[in-house]
Amino acid sequence: MPQLTWLITGCTSGLGEAFVRGIIARGDKVIATTRGDVSRISTLAEAGAKTFSLDVTAPRSEIDAVVQNILKENTIDVLVNNAGYVEAGLAEEVTYENYVNQFETNFFGVVKTTQALLPHFREKKSGTVVFLGSSGGLAGEPGAGPYCATKHALEGWNDVLRLETAHLGIRPIIFELGFFRTKIFNKDNLRFRTTNFSDNDPIRELVGGMVQQVDGNQPGDPAKAVSIMVDVVKGEGVAEGKAFPNRLPLGPDCLATLRKHRVNDLLIANEWEEVIRSTNFDP
């Protein structure tokens, strides 16, 4: 496949950094972005990436300006919407403002960045838009209401974008990741909101214990996930000869969540079919 140029958001650490290094190792070009000073990703520049400051929570006009600046000297083939974080807490206890903050980064930031690139993809009649989803976007996880809500929103937007842009040669895809060993659950990155509602103590303690147990012990290898995602975009390696999927779960834990959720939906559809079909006007 010809050499591609990738634009990736949120490259300071974790999957973003792994993406940059993995893509460079494959011989493609990378434009790595981070919020704030690009010195935060200076090691990626040393590895061969071009670096830009891009805050996905900025107004659309500012994001457009950064993207246009990038496009002056680069043709983008793939956008990877990686920037994100976990706004955690029990559904009752997380404030409206915290929900908004979560959506500003994990969903609206994705929408604005994607919209900024779509005219470029339309003009060249090609382009791949990668969304990083989660098992939390397939089924809820206790203590992660805001995060799960944004990932569910991405699932729907990915489907809509595919239907609306297929005739333009644009390919959206969402990779649904299970637990991979990044710093997303690190205390410096995880924002857990709490109150003094004693009724919620048991579930709050359960969530807190789970986070402590999972952080640093996630089973998934980010480098392996990135290698597969790059293969899928390029149609190489494990993806050679396979149809381009609209979504793909990664990680045995995510696969188990997907199967359980879909089987439960099917059981409900079968048990309640007669009732479900009874809602039309009578002939």
From TrEMBL:
Keywords, comma-separated and alphabetical: NADP, Oxidoreductase
Oxidoreductase keyword on record: yes
Stored SUPFAM superfamilies: NAD(P)-binding Rossmann-fold domains
Family matches, as Gene3D superfamilies: NAD(P)-binding Rossmann-like Domain
InterPro entries (alphabetical): NAD(P)-bd_dom_sf, Sc_DH/Rdtase_CS, SDR_fam, SDR_oxidoreductase
Record bears the keyword 4Fe-4S: no
MF terms in GO: oxidoreductase activity
Similarity remark: Belongs to the short-chain dehydrogenases/reductases (SDR) family.
Name of the featured protein: NAD(P)-binding protein
